[in-house]
């Protein structure tokens, strides 16, 4: 456990455990294998790695994303790749019409000599808490294929969705992983990346300084391999998230404060 381990992409036992976890909870169209998985030392390093494998540093390469979105994306990716980020405005991100805004942003960037190399989405979204529907994900995959760019889907909150309150007419958010979309004949799977809190499926090796520690990989393997514990943990988490949401909404209603009802 305290040795140098099996290289810089995660131990084989951890990658196998994570592959089984993904196949069980993310419902991919094609089974995910250990060979597809790469681990890093945390989410910040993961964002850096995504920038490193999609963009050339110091040039005119850029990553495109909508707004609002998780703020540190920019800081994390610029730290390694010196990127310029292209926002496409405060468009509705979750409907198929978002493709028009991204396409306009791509054209505007190209006209300024900037090469868009990737589109980043956050699913479930941070900070809005909404999930991308299947049809929107498919539309984004088609857009990425037409433009020849990578699609990076940050799915760190994939297992944090929860049912809506019982006395509410809202539908619960339903998470769909980009890997659950059948993109056969739509896009080459290699430019499509999905990331979670401990992994990124990328075909390119990353810096050895991004490697997680052996103790952390050993602990993660033990947790993921204990299916009973994992199921109990997720069920407990979902129930507590739902109770916290109900409490926050009641407090806001009690003092007349408006809040975002979706998500």
Structural write-up:
This protein has 7 helices and 5 strands; from the N terminus they run ααβαβαβαββαα. It is an alpha/beta fold and about 260 residues long. The chain has a 5-stranded parallel β-sheet, sandwiched between helices. β1, α3 and β2 (about 85) form a beta-alpha-beta unit. α1 (about 10-25) runs parallel beside α6 (about 215-225) and α2 (about 45-55) packs across α3. The longest helix is centred in the last third of the chain and has 28 residues, at about 225-255. The chain is globular. Mean pLDDT is about 85; it is low at about 195-205.
Q: How is this fold's topology laid out?
A:
Blueprint: H1 12-25, H2 43-54, E1 61-65, H3 72-81, E2 84-87, H4 98-111, E3 115-122, H5 134-147, E4 150-154, E5 192-195, H6 214-225, H7 227-254
Parallel strand pairs: 1-2, 1-3, 3-4, 4-5
């Amino acid at each position: 456990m305290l040795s140098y381990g099996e290289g810089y992409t995660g131990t084989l036992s951890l990658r196998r455990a994570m592959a089984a976890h993904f196949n069980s909870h993310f419902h991919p169209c094609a089974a995910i294998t250990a060979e597809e998985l790469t681990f890093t030392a945390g989410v910040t390093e993961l964002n850096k790695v995504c920038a490193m494998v999609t963009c050339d540093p110091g040039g005119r390469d850029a990553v495109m994303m909508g707004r609002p979105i998780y703020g540190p994306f920019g800081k994390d990716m610029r730290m390694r790749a010196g990127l310029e980020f292209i926002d496409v405005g405060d468009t509705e991100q979750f409907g198929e019409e978002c493709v028009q805004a991204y396409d306009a942003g791509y054209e505007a960037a190209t006209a300024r000599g900037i090469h868009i190399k990737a589109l980043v989405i956050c699913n479930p979204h941070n900070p809005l808490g909404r999930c991308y529907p299947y049809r929107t994900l498919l539309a984004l995959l088609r857009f990425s294929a037409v433009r020849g760019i990578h699609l990076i889907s940050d799915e760190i909150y994939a297992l944090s969705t929860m049912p809506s309150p019982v006395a509410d007419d809202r539908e619960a958010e339903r998470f769909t992983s980009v890997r659950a979309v059948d993109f056969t004949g739509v896009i080459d799977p290699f430019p499509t990346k999905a990331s979670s809190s401990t992994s990124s499926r990328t075909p390119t090796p990353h810096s050895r300084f991004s490697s997680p520690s052996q103790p952390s990989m050993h602990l993660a393997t033990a947790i993921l391999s204990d299916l009973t514990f994992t199921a109990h943990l997720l069920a407990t988490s979902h129930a507590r998230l739902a109770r916290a949401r109900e409490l926050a909404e009641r407090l806001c209603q009690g003092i007349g404060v408006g809040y975002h009802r979706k998500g």
